[in-house]
Amino acid sequence: MHKVLRFDILEYKERVRRVKERMDANGIELLFLVDPANMNYLTGYDGWSFYVHQGVLLTLEDDQPHWFGRQQDSNGARITTWLDEEHIHGYPDFYVQSRYTHTMVYVANLIKEFKYENKNIGVEMDNYWYSAKSMNVLRQELPCAVFKDATNLVNWVRTIKSPAEINYMRQAARICEHVMQTAIDAIDIGIWEKDAASKVVAAQIAGVDEYGGDSPAIFPIMPSDIRTSTAHLTFDPDRKYQKGDVVLLELSGCRFRYHAPLSRTLYLGEPPEGLRKIAQVVINGLQTTLDFIKPGITAEEVELRWRKCLEGTGVEKPSRVGYAFGLNYVPDWGEHTVSLRPGDKTILRPGMTIHFMPGIWLDEFGFECSEPFLVTEKGCEKLINFPEELFIKK
């Protein structure tokens, strides 16, 4: 069967090698992954099949990971992964959402077949895709195994992007520029919010003339009016934009599951002075902090630099101001590793990609202006070229 791989096989092998280093350092002899992004990272698997149990098993000895999933998804593994036939395992349909058995029984039998039932097994305990029932069944089926928490083990390997990954993220950035401009052009007084949102979604998938896009991990966040006073609300499908609306836009381009997110703010009418002041403070702080970023400093030092920019302005930002991002599936394009906040002593290294997102949410409205950046050998590089300003339509 013809394979469609997004990266060279040598890159996948290098990823496996780096993950094995972390496994060995953490005393893990078999790693069990269920996070779709981590599965994709090590194997290339790219199916929308995570509503049923699926995963990857990686041992220290084997040259390839083992993919398992629903039998009808097995051809997806044959098409999208670099794995040979012996490393693709499809389970029968009677395991799917069954009241009488559980897919982890099948997984336990695979582990027994590999002779790892008495080994140290790492599992992603704090992960969207790993349930308490899965953990209970594995413990029952593998009573002699020692289970270790491997949450985010692969995610930390993913923080340093390869040149090929960065290329896809640059492409996602070009898509995002088009998406953001589409949103700003579509939104105006009297326009249905649903109509503007539909154009944004279409632009995300259409991409640019040279290449297409994917549906990002997060649905377009496009709140207006009082809904901008909080994070993560989307559009109101039964509302038209009105004069005096603040509209927050937190959107992303996506290319082969690699993201480039961006936030901007639009005002319909003459902005109040309070909003103009907040916009200026945030944008100045954003630019000053980006100039400060370079390899070798810590995540918390970046946040401290940002916080110093707010001193004496009356603007406060109690939550983190950024996070690592890249390859992901719903519900989040963040990598759940680096956070720009006090206490995070992660050292920034070349190849890291971080979304600097100093969103401000007040009782009546919010303001967002963010930048995704790549840590380089000498500083940082903004991935997206889009004006940093409060956009106004009168």
UniProtKB/TrEMBL annotation:
Pfam families: Creatinase_N (PF01321), Peptidase_M24 (PF00557). Residues 15-160 form the Creatinase N-terminal domain. InterPro entries: Creatin/AminoP/Spt16_N (IPR029149), Creatinase/aminopeptidase-like (IPR036005), Creatinase_N (IPR000587), Pept_M24 (IPR000994), Peptidase_M24B (IPR050659). Residues 168-377 form the Peptidase M24 domain. This is Creatinase. It comes from Acetomicrobium hydrogeniformans ATCC BAA-1850.
